[in-house]
Amino acid sequence: EVQLVQSGAEVKKPGESLKISCKGSGYSFTSYWIGWVRQMPGKGLEWMGIIYPSDSDTRYSPSFQGQVTISADKSIRTAYLQWSSLKASDTAMYYCARLRETQSRWFDPWGQGTLVSVSS
Amino acid sequence: QSVLTQPPSVSAAPGQKVTISCSGSSSNIGNNYVSWYQQLPGTAPKLLIYDNNRRPSGIPDRFSGSKSGTSATLGITGLQTGDEADYYCGTWDSSLSAAVFGGGTKLTVL
Question: B56–A108: do the CB atoms touch at under 8 Å?
Answer without folding.
Answer: yes
